[in-house]
Specification:
16% strand; Rossmann fold; alpha/beta; 14 helices; 14 strands; 39% helix; 6-stranded parallel β-sheet
Amino acid sequence: MRILIATDAWHPQVNGVLRTLVAVAEALTGIGETVRFLNHEGMPTIGLPTYRDIRLGVPRPGEVGERIAAIAPDAIHIATEGPIGHLVRRHCIRRGRPFTTSFHTRFADYAAARWPIPKELSWSWLRWFHNGGRATMASTPSLMDELTTRGFRKVLRWPRGVDTDMFRPRDRQSLDIPRPMFLSVGRVAVEKNLEAFLSLELPGTKVVVGEGPARGDLASRYPNALFLGEKQGEELAALYAAADVFVFPSRTDTFGLVLLEALSSGTPIAGFPVAATRDVVGSAPVAVLDNDLGTACRGALLLSRAACRDYARTMTWHESARCFVGNLVAAGVCSRA
């Protein structure tokens, strides 16, 4: 089966949406499917006023239809709600072609944090966008329940996975910093709530990995924290394994792929008891979730690193890919499992 995935999230962006799509595409190939991406490669791009490191593709008239025709997919999946996602959606609706979507980002929360946009207005737009398809895929049970409550018509579970070969326990580098090492990885932006982590009184060293519009301001206000910028591959994996605790201060993420990467590296989690984080860790003894983030950080120091690794190994991209294909069949956008 040839699957087209339309996405506005593409290189050089570094985020969980892109990493999810690339990992699932690789796993889909491994089970015999063919995946093609419709992204901004070969198109003019524009930057966003606030997120200057993000580039959005601007297709010329008719280009999206031409690319779809050239790929000749058996199934179409729209992963993002940007310009490419909108044009693919319009193309499919005009031609009566079924498609699925996936819900990755709490745009309503992020927009309200940045601009004076009422959340209900954003949710109304998101509902319109996703309900144009046959089904919306969501990563966790709590997100599925929320989307259903908000009027999304058909919501299907699409779990995430982790590369347990890349993200694994390793010799724990000292980095020449005071221990314990409290690590946070992700986009350095206001919606990630990093200030809740950086303002804590904790022993050792706070380390932040990632880039984003808030980095300069946060680095100047919290000079005792170590900001390492963007890291990928083996370098990122080594940092996960070196950390004593992985701190996830976000209250708005829909999943948090970084949580699985940390756990697979043997590093316990500290975070707030919000739905998305609870869904990832379940009842396993691999995280301390508390409304007092400092208490969670200190408590996570006592957890078993072996338990973290064992838990993460139950979540694979292979299973995520098989579920994705099953959702395409269940939604009626293709006829073969």
